[in-house]
Amino acid sequence: MTQPNLYSTPDLQGDSSAWMSFIWIAFGLSFFMMLVGVYYLPVDWWIKGYLYMGTMFLTASTLTLSKSLRDRHEHERLVNRVKSARTEQVLSKYGE
């Protein structure tokens, strides 16, 4: 009797639609509120421009960082899955 391989079955559990909706609403609302807040600041236009530029750059770099961290995690999962499969193959060859 062989044991089922835990690495051969994909992880089918994902984020719920409610969670994804919450994330997008929170992102959109915070971004919108930041832009409106800068618009109503009682400062010169060049200071507002600097704050808008900083907001855009910070948002873009945060999204890029988030994607890069996710991609690295997925790569490490794949590498670990391959290493585990190789180890199982070697062990099964010598276990016979």
UniProtKB/TrEMBL annotation:
<dbReference type="Pfam" id="PF05360">
    <property type="entry name" value="YiaAB"/>
</dbReference>
<keyword id="KW-0812">Transmembrane</keyword>
<protein>
    <submittedName>
        <fullName>YiaAB two helix domain protein</fullName>
    </submittedName>
</protein>
<feature type="domain" description="YiaAB two helix">
    <location>
        <begin position="19"/>
        <end position="71"/>
    </location>
</feature>
<dbReference type="GO" id="GO:0006974">
    <property type="term" value="P:DNA damage response"/>
</dbReference>
<dbReference type="InterPro" id="IPR008024">
    <property type="entry name" value="YiaAB"/>
</dbReference>
<keyword id="KW-1133">Transmembrane helix</keyword>
<keyword id="KW-0472">Membrane</keyword>
<dbReference type="InterPro" id="IPR038972">
    <property type="entry name" value="YiaA-like"/>
</dbReference>
<feature type="transmembrane region" description="Helical">
    <location>
        <begin position="21"/>
        <end position="41"/>
    </location>
</feature>
<dbReference type="GO" id="GO:0005886">
    <property type="term" value="C:plasma membrane"/>
</dbReference>
